[in-house]
Write a structure and sequence with these properties.
Elements: H1 10-23, H2 27-51, H3 58-70
Length: 81
């Protein structure tokens, strides 16, 4: 599936513009990087699930990851939980 457009709010648009500017990325490259990260995470999840070492759903993993991201600051990004 190819998505050519996305609907985002003006507030989100401002944030995306700031992130792109500070990371020197286009919005397309930002989304591509996000999808690439999720693809890698899902691949690792599927491997662990097939080996029987992962019992959580992928949705649960994403929820926990989001909680970790929301509690992160630039000063604690290098600290492993």
């Amino acid at each position: 599936m190819v998505v050519k457009t996305m609907d985002i709010t003006i507030e989100d648009s401002d944030t995306v513009a700031k992130i792109c500017r500070e990371a020197d990325l286009t919005p397309q490259k930002l989304v591509d990087a996000y999808i690439a990260s999720l693809t890698f995470l899902h691949y690792a999840y599927e491997q662990a699930r097939n080996e029987g070492t992962e019992r959580r759903s992928f949705g649960e993993i994403l929820t926990k990851l989001l909680k970790q991201i929301l509690s992160s600051t630039p000063s604690n990004l290098d600290v492993a939980p």
